[in-house]
């Protein structure tokens, strides 16, 4: 009776070689890219079917999916899981090789997209913007925004929930910490920096080294990146809302390119619902245009962006609306749609124009990416990225033609299309997976303690391991710094004096004056005392006049002078 089936034969063939000789170690790039293909591209078809009664055929929906794949870079995805809490901001340098993400876990993660391999997708450096804090117990703050300079990828701006903006190099080194203003000065024009939390920032689109910040102190400030002791200009927004006393929180700001007027513009949103525009080069004493009630009062408008030609402004408010504005007719919006907001929980929920201005992208509370038509703000594509977890921040890189998203579950996703995109995620997937050595896995190594080796042998191994761990502090740790093996917590390397007792002879020979600890000071002084019969150098005259010393004798302690008794 033969129980050997065809399935068993196929399973057995997997363990048998298919050919002889040396195998080709080249990686199948197409297979690696195909593994990143997304199953669901567009869910807008189901929404359209529901609204129209479901009369469209399946063939039409399949053809629409193919069109969406060729039009938008969303056919494939690459996932980064380097944060423990919600990813609130994403920034890339102009070349698209360095990615920085910020999170509510109060850290910045730096990723080198040109050096990552498919099986080691992680950040090469974790930066704490508050590493200059006085102690480890000092509080940290969430990251609001990270912005690379559009003119140079050598530095980026970090906005945290503090009154001070910080400038970092592309390697995560702190360059400058900008001035904090005096909170006790009522006139904000006299302060040298923000007196309360900074909420948003933007770089100048054409002039190098200038950026603008918006804060909850009702001011918008323009800074020179090289002068951190004071801002260059202060714009104070006078709120006209009832009961505001002329003060309100500025929630978002954007600096747009020069339009038909030939001048750049600064557009900011406020908590009182107003949308204010100033000329980018001044004067700033009064706004060029202001829309009261652009969004509902006391709702957080966290998303604002200006098109590359400087004509259109799109805002995403906390009143569950998205509105499109024309800077030439700034009183009423061109179009608006209903879109559930997440700014009440995640204030940095943003909205962006596509690099070619043909689309507008934003996230949703359900974890979907919405690609909207800029004329009508109707969705052209709705694709799930992190279903069930809010999609907070989005960024469409113009050079890579890839969409970067950050979600509330700590996940960063790169959406791309091999036909439309270049570099970025494709650079990672075109590399062979890194081969790990057997000794890199601590679970596969042998513990020498049960083998009965001498204690000094084990001690030497520990010293060597500690030295290796100090030179490679991230081995065996996760991206967040925790131990990969819960049974083996991360123990800091011991100090040199804690590993072994110093040799006495080594200490005596290497440490100066160490022998004086055992020396008797009385004997050391008696070495220089004159011996019996030796001629005295300074008191030799007494040898002739008074050969025998005569000392005063006291019959009792009361006869002694008071000074003598005090000394005793």
From TrEMBL:
InterPro entries found in the cross-reference section: WD40/YVTN_repeat-like_dom_sf (IPR015943), WD40_PAC1 (IPR020472), WD40_repeat_dom_sf (IPR036322), WD40_rpt (IPR001680), WD_repeat_GAD-1 (IPR051858)
Q: Which SMART domains match?
A: WD40
Start and stop residues of the WD repeats: 80-114, 191-224, 304-335
Q: Where is this region: Disordered?
A: 40-76, 463-506, 538-568
User: Which UniProt keywords are listed?
Assistant: Repeat, WD repeat
Give TM regions. Answer: none
Q: Name one GO cellular component term.
A: site of double-strand break
Q: Do the record's keywords include Methyltransferase? A: no
PROSITE patterns reported in the protein's UniProt record: WD_REPEATS_2, WD_REPEATS_REGION
Acidic residues: compositionally biased ranges: 56-72
Q: What is this protein called?
A: WD40 repeat-like protein
Q: Which organism is it from?
A: Westerdykella ornata
Taxonomic lineage is: Eukaryota, Fungi, Dikarya, Ascomycota, Pezizomycotina
